[in-house]
Amino acid sequence: MLTEQERAEIEVHAACYLHRRAAGPEALKVVQAHRGWVSDEALADVAEALGVTATELESLATAYTMIFRRPVGRHVILLCDSVSCWVMGYERLVEHLRSRWGVALGETTADERLTLLPAACLGACDRAPALMIDGVLYGDLTVEKLDRILEGLK
Amino acid sequence: MERPLTEHIRAEGEPPTLAEYERTGGYAALRQAVGKMTPPEVRAAVAESGLRGRGGAGFPTGKKWGFVPTGPGESRPKYLVVNGDEMEPGTFKDRRLLEGDPHGLIESTIIAAYAIEAEVAYIFVRWDYQTAAARLGRALAEARAAGYVGRKVAGSDYGLEIYFHVSAGRYMCGEEEGLLNALEGKRPTPRAKPPHPPVVGLWGKPTIVDNVETMAWVRHIVGRGPAWFRGLGRGAEGGTKLYGASGHVRRPGLWELPMGTTAREIIEEHAGGMRDGWSLRGFLPGGASTDFLTAVHLDAAMDFGSLEQAGSRLGTGAIVVLDDRTCPVGFVANLTAFFARESCGWCTPCRDGLPWMARTLRAIEEGRGEAGDLALLEEQTKFLAPGNTFCALAPGAMEPLTSALRLFREDFERHVAEGRCRYGRAGE
Amino acid sequence: MAKIYIENIPYEVADGQNLLQACLTLGFDLPYFCWHPAMHAVGACRQCAVKQFKDEADTKGRIVMSCMTLAEEGIRISIDDPEARAFRAGVIELLMTNHPHDCPVCDEGGECHLQDMTVMTGHAYRRYRFTKRTHRSQNLGPFVQHEMNRCIACYRCVRFYQDAAGGRDLDVFQWHNHVYFGRANDGPLENELSGNLVEICPTGVFTDKTFKRHYARPWDLQTAPSVCGHCSLGCNTIPGERGGRLRRIRTRFHGEVNGYFLCDRGRFGYEFVNSARRVRWARVKQKEVPAAEAVAHVAALAGGGRVIGIGSPRASLESNFALRALVGAECFYSGLAAKEQALAALVLEILREGPARAASLHEAACADAVLLLGEDVTQTAPLLAASLRQAVLTQPIEIATKLNIHRFHDAAVREALQKEKGPFFVATADATKLDDIATTVFREAPEEVARLGFAIARGVQGDAPPVVDLPPERRQAAGLIAETLRNAQRPLVVAGVAGGSAEVIQAAANVAWALCAAGVPAKLLLVLPECNSLGAALLGGGDLEAAAQAVRSGAAETVIVLENDLTRRAGTETVEAILSAPHVVVLDAIENATTARAEVVLPAATFAETNGTLVNNEGRAQRFFQVFEPEGEVRGSWRWLGEIEQKLKIKNEKLKIDSDGEEKRSSVPQQSWGLQRQEEAERFDEVVAAMVRAMPELAGVVEAAPGAGFRVAGEKIPRQAQRQSGRTAVPGEASAEERSVPADADTALAFSMEGYAGIPPAALVARYRRPGWNSNQAINKYQQEVGGPPRGGDAGKRLFDAAGLREKPYFSTAPAAFVRRAGELWVTAAWHVFGSEELSVLSPGVAELSPEPYLGLSPEDAAALGAKDGDLVELRIAGGPAHRLRARVRPALVAGVATLPAGLGELAAMELPAWGKAVTIGRTEGGAA
Ligand SMILES: Cc1cc2nc3c(=O)[nH]c(=O)nc-3n(C[C@H](O)[C@H](O)[C@H](O)COP(=O)(O)O)c2cc1C
Ligand code: SF4
Ligand code: FES
User: Fold this and answer.
1) For the purposes of burial, counting CB atoms within 10 Å of the CB of C170, is it exposed (0-12), middle (13-18) or buried (19 or more)?
2) Of the candidates B57, C21, C483, B322, which has an alpha carbon nearest to the alpha carbon of residue A84?
3) How far is the alpha carbon of C164 from chain A, nearest alpha carbon, in Å?
4) Chain C: nearest CA to A94, how far in angstroms?
5) What is the C125 CA–ligand 3 centroid distance (Å)?
């Protein structure tokens, strides 16, 4: 099921390591970049491409936080829940996301628009509380600012 | 005041291009190293500078490099790994260097690799640092095109390949052996030591893992000499340090200051002091894995030696401030939950001890504490001491907790006794 | 030796061990989980902590993990130190935070290492007050039950499964305290050593699913030392019975043979013993009769003269001998078909007369270079695979040694070694499950495999016979292998008879012999098909074709068949000839096509119901002991045959008085046991003694295990758990009354809880249990040095040994090159660990995993036949009848060669290899239509 494009990208990564199997996490990320998440079929295909078993790859996939083995919404929100953001009140954002946007931590909205995941320190403690949406970092958040950002998303 | 690591870093926008970088003297140190110095000479310079690792443990970098078996006939290839995983809560210093000065890091990496006679280097960046990864990627392409990376580095006989690895996300990827496992496409669990990575590292070959900030120094030390480096610090320890401050200070941020600057200067001058209505109760001097200090320590020099004397550690040099309106129990409950979540699950005390402690802390914070809880927590902090666990994650987690149980004892006791938290929600 | 101090008292311990092993060897109790003597240390569980002190003056000390610390000269430690004790109790307390309190319903109960260690550390009261994490368990197939909630995350399972067994479908998932050990998806575990998880896991995550179906409390099981009957390796086992049913098999430690492990066929193949197809009563002409009547009937037949006996490679030496004694050596046939017999004899000749010693599994694991010719041993001798996986690390271990990493630091050693493998050359026609560790793989037809072997031998020693027409690159490859083997310290050559090629075995012998001639102590490991194949070869006798001839010629009127389903073993013509004899007497445990044709059927005991000796593939005689008294009139074949002989003798003595009886007397067997009274004839030791008298070469059999007269402190060895176990009455679940137990005059074991409670000689170990150690980890206590040989030495006795550099001429003729025949296939046997062996396949789990009969085709031949995977094909072998089979495309199989699964379906008895013709008839069962 992997596309030529995905295969080509996986090969680029595979060339960076002594053994092909070392590219496991990278290859999963390639699939995820194209599909949003890694399905069982995709995982099996990647395993075959790298000469590992599905079990071995699943062992990796489930160890790393940034490999999604379940479908996620169109926008993935990584909300920093580490200490500086806690001090600066990230819990308020969580509550707001639930009440206003209908998404709780670890969940995806019914319309598959948003997925909210807790994240370890995003390295933006000077701009706490912070979160990342689709790879873009937002800091110094207030509920108003968060609303503006989310309203801007499709 | 010299700020060698950050002087060319712009507050906004793209980092310097290769041309811009070269205009400010970039890659001169590299030319000098591969053109005029032997690897032992480069190693000697770094050793002489007294540079200590900025990744948290403060191990002398030159000494670490010295463990690598070098010279003809020794095991090949060798690897250099730059640790840019930066996931220590409260820490955001490497991000600045990665995003703001990619060429600086690449130049240093090449010189360091040359020094330890490595053929391959990896720059390991955490998943969330996508901007950094993109900028590093562009810089590397430029450096390669200019002949700084590849089969003949700057026209010399030395060859080096540099790869990036963007992590798939785990705190343990920052622990050097977890990082090596991650690079090998394995679960990022720690490895048995000894053997240490300089002898048996990536794919069983000698490997040096250095923190981004540590690495950034290499070109400066080679270019301007160990004596210059030593002169930058205020006390015995040389160089500058990227210090950060977060929490309810007026201007949270990151500053490059002489090694040994006091916490008071950082918090009161650079960060502008506490916000109105908030006052300082304590602070973690160097990220989540360091012991709390309090106002009495504000004048301690923020260097490895002085903070150890003060009963804590410099760690990453990232100050996290605990204020008087924030619950210390909640604070350590948050930290402990982080460590419990990031425990790799390999050794028992860490895997099963941290979640228990995190739940106990949460219970106390939420007013469900019980009589024996504090004694139990104290017992467990001793239980997760260095040597008792497989790697340093759990002992690191114990540092803020142990000190909090001592310094903020009455808060814990009051929570248990009253069955509630008197503080409002954090941040309000 | 190193002097170490424990609580300030000096002790001498062997060099290079870790402290844990040293302390256990010294008899101290130290708890541990992640460490295992066969898998070494990784320091994960932190359970084995002790205090280490810098010197005498140091009173503070620091906690270290004993498994990760070298027991080096002068080291000072304390086990008793309060802080160390508290730490160990604390670790258990943590492990128990998530462990369910389901001990009463856990299959591990009563033999749980976690339970033992919990009691040992003194952790008793729960302080953790929060909820436990829960997991969903998986269906891992018919053998292994999974209950993940009991996991204590010691990582033993994945380390065993991946590192020792080479499996890649069991792994660890998730993170922090949610780590999960299992497969990516539900499904049977793929590795043929998976059952060891049951014993490796220190708690009840992996348990024996076959046991579960007829579970009994482990301490209620009656057990005896036994030997596995499902392949030629002869792994040592402890079967357990309760209420007349065999419930399970566990490992009996053997330092030289199986160590701590068993394969799945051996562990789970036992259920044939409980089969509904068991023969339980004697039968004459389809009618059940009392035993005495059946004996009299057979004695009358035998007394009539013209009687021959057909032995069996799956029956004990004693039963075979009893038959041979009854009918006379010249009327005794081995029970093997001509080709199998020739191959077994060839192996015996090579091992007995050649200079290369047969390797035990332990020695195989120590080999530093391996050549494997012609056989996927993972299917024919599964546990050998574990030895070979260890052998490929022998050379690379040097890397770790140079880096000062001690062998016991398992994880560190593996990091240092990475993928480094020692030389291991594989030459087979199809892929093997060991290809992943091979240095070089040669995919060739059997003849070419043999030629490669001959060429390697020639490369080692110039006077070994040449191979003609060998392509230069093959010659060169052979030269390189020869050089590698020559440079090794302990090279090993592995081959087997499963492929049916004498040349391959000869080639293996030549290589080993050439190495011996070159001064390199090479060993040979030759795999045979059955548990007593080598014993059968030792006993000799004609083959089945000769037996058929005896019947055809009228020389034999009565045929006594011992534990042998002839229809599985030889072609229809031969079998028909034998079974058409006027009188056919069959002794067997299971109804089969041969018993169906017999005039007399005598219910034979299985391995679990009698005693006997088997000779494994290295020539080691090993004794198995009766575990329980079976239901019905079941007896050991040797006992039936002894009774028949007695009857015959009494009758003949009477005849002598009644008349002159010239003719009749001549029918009295030549080799009588010379016994006087019936009771004596039934004594097992007497059979052994008679056998040794008749065949001095078998003298070692006497030493395979202590005899019936053996006692320790005047006591026998109990087959049941000690009285202190809490059990007071044998049928405890039904009544509290003591039942009278059968006496056992044949062995030093008793059907009782009474007897010697200490550690008996290894051959008589019926269970592993010491105070405080109720799981199989008690094995530690039965060893001289933990991980080493048992106290008093390993069980069993080698019957012969190559005596150094004896002269033995090379096998001189390498086969001609393999030439494909247009339109024909060279059909060879493919052995399957599940399915190819006769008895184990009667166990439901084994049957479930055994393949449907098929014809394995190379992609090229499949294409030529227009056959796709799963298509129906019709196969004719040597112009015989057509057989319909599904095609299976084997991607690695050499073109021109096809494979048929051994022992399965109507082609079970086909003599392979042979030329065959195949045509494709379509996709559906109905054929082309
Ligand atoms: C749990 C854990 C996490 C760590 N994370 C990081 C990290 O994110 N970045 C880093 O540079 N060092 C990290 N370290 C420290 C590294 O193990 C290692 O000491 C460091 O990379 C060495 O570099 P240095 O000598 O330049 O400081 C971590 C250590 C532990 C125990
Ligand atoms: S399943 Fe058993 S062997 Fe595997 S980690 Fe858990 S307790 Fe250990
Ligand atoms: S047995 Fe020593 S740490 Fe597990």
Assistant:
1) buried
2) B322
3) 16
4) 24
5) 23
Task: Give chain B's length.
Answer: 428
A4-63 under CATH 3.90.1010, yes or no: no
Min Cα separation C40/chain B (Å): 13
- Omega within 30 of 0 (cis) for the link into B194: yes
Architecture of the domain defined by B240-323: Roll (3.10)
Consecutive H or E run containing C869: none
CB atoms closer than 10 angstroms to residue A65: 20
Nearest CA to ligand 2 atom 2: C201
Mean pLDDT score, B394-398: 98
For domain B328-418, the question of CATH label 3.30.70.100 is answered with no
Return the number of other C-beta atoms located less than 10 Å from residue B33's C-beta. 28
Query: Which strands sit side by side in the sheet containing B161-166, from one edge to the other?
Result: B161-166, B120-125, B79-84, B207-211
Q: Are strands A107-108 and B253-258 parallel, antiparallel or unpaired?
A: unpaired
For residue A91, list chain B residues with Cβ-Cβ distance below 8 A: 425-427
Is the CB–ligand 1 distance for residue B290 below 6 Å? no
| Calpha distance C640→A93 (Å, rounded) | 85
**What's the rounded Cα separation, in Å, for the pair C909 and C903?**
7
Look at strands C854-857 and C226-227 and give their pairing: unpaired
What's the alpha-carbon Rg for chain B, to the nearest Å?
Answer: 22
CATH class, B18-231 region: alpha beta
Identify the residue whose C-alpha is closest to ligand 2 atom 3.
Answer: C201
Taking the CA of residue C631 as centre, how many other CA atoms within 13 Å lie in the half-sphere pointing to its CB?
11
Mean pLDDT of chain B: 96
Query: Which ligand is nearest the CA of B349, by number?
Result: 3
Ligand 3 lining (C-beta closer than 6 Å) = C 20, 32-35, 41, 43-48, 65, 67
Counting residues of chain A whose pLDDT is more than 70, the rounded percentage is 100
User: Within a 10 A sphere around the Cβ of C806, how many other Cβ atoms?
Assistant: 13
Residue in chain B closest to C49 (alpha carbons) equals B388
Does B185 contact A121 at a Cβ distance shorter than 8 Å?
no
Domain ranges of chain B: 18-231, 240-323, 328-418
Task: Take residue B85 and report the two structure tokens written for it.
Answer: 């995983």
User: How far is it, in rounded angstroms, from Cα B219 to Cα B209?
Assistant: 17
Judged by its nearest atom, the ligand closest to the C-alpha of residue B191 is 1
**B99: its two tokens:** 């995003």
The secondary structure element, H or E, covering residue C423 is: none
Q: Give the B:C interface size as CB pairs under 8 Å.
A: 112
Q: Please give the residue of chain B at the shortest CA–CA distance from C155.
A: B346
Residue range B7-43, pLDDT digits in tens: 999 988 999 999 999 999 999 999 999 999 999 999 9
**Which residues lie below 8 Å from residue C867, measured CB to CB, with a gap of 6+?**
C857, C873, C887, C889, C918, C920
Query: Where along chain A do its domains lie?
Result: 4-63, 75-151
CA separation (Å) from C907 to B162, C590, C834, C836? 60, 20, 16, 11
* pLDDT score, position C651: 73
Q: What is the pLDDT of residue C680?
A: 44
Looking at CATH, the fold of the domain delimited by A75-151 is given as Glutaredoxin (3.40.30)
pLDDT along chain C (929 residues), means of 10: 97 96 97 97 98 95 97 98 97 96 93 96 94 97 98 98 97 97 97 98 98 94 97 98 96 98 98 97 96 96 93 98 96 96 96 94 98 97 97 96 94 92 97 97 96 98 94 96 98 96 97 96 97 97 97 96 96 95 98 97 98 98 97 96 90 58 42 43 86 95 96 95 69 70 91 92 97 95 96 96 72 94 95 96 97 96 96 91 94 97 83 93 60
- What phi, psi does C689 have (nearest 5°)? -65, -45
Taking the CA of residue C155 as reference, the ligand 2 atom at the shortest distance is 5
